[in-house]
Amino acid sequence: MKGILYARVSTRRMEQESSLDRQVEALTAWARRLGVEVVETITEQHSGFDLDRDGLYRLLDAIREKRVEAVLVQDDSRLGRGDAKLAIIHQLTRADCKIYSLQSGGELELEAGESTVLDIMARVEELQRRWMRQKISWGMRRAVREGYNPAKNLKNRGQGGRSRKDVPVEQIVALKEKKLTFEEVAATLQGFGYDVSRATVHRRYREWQEARASERKPGKEGYIST
Q1: What's the family (predicted)?
Q2: Which residue numbers are catalytic?
Q3: What's phi and psi for 83, nearest 5 deg?
């Protein structure tokens, strides 16, 4: 198993630097006993209440990219403090990363209240995912009900499960003409395989409107003044 050693102290005082060294030394020896291959050692001198930490970003990137399967810490407070700690543990757990705590002598053990909070967070996220799927389905049904024909309007169909990175402006305009909201347009296009957000849909529609308005200004080719 590949892992990262993560050590943190809250200030940059000299005695805290020696604490960092002790953490790394203890974690290195423990990783050896556990048979963990240490890919990287991250040390930080930063408040645990703050999520904006370079080392934390490096840790999360390594886990998302599947370069490591576990993180070893002295104790859970090294990951963070208060709500920040729970948010970090939640992200690591979602990514199937094991958290080993030297203090616990194995996988991290949380207090009952903290475990309950993390369980609630996971349940809320699952409900949000289900809600988004339902919104996409509802948006697609409404578009079709309003006369939108995906077989006729959407290009490049039948190309497998690839996510379309292009943004079909003409389809955004067509759906807006069916009186769908920007959120509904985004949900509908997502359902048809386009990787677009509400903000992107809104921005591209505004750009289309501005381009149309510019074309209608006097002096433009094809404009006839009366």
Answers
A1: Belongs to the site-specific recombinase resolvase family.
A2: 10
A3: -65, -35
Instruction: Pick 157 or 120 by higher pLDDT.
Output: 120
Helices (H), the chain: 14-34, 54-64, 76-79, 82-94, 112-145, 150-153, 169-177, 182-191, 198-215
Joined together, the tokens standing for residue 178 give: 């069916």
Q: What is the pTM of this model?
A: 0.54
Residue among 69, 48, 118 nearest 89 (CA): 118
- In this structure, are residues 107 and 89 in contact, taking their beta carbons and an 8 Å threshold? no
Q: Tens digits of per-residue pLDDT, 76-105?
A: 999 999 888 888 888 888 888 999 999 989
- Cα radius of gyration rounded to whole Å, the chain: 26
The domain segmentation of the chain, as residue ranges, is 2-110, 128-215
Q: Residue 45, SS3? A: strand
Q: Given this structure, which CATH class describes domain 2-110?
A: alpha beta
Query: What is the distance between the terminal CA atoms of the chain, rounded to a whole angstrom?
Result: 77
Q: Residue 55 has what pLDDT?
A: 92
d(CA 168, CA 112): 49
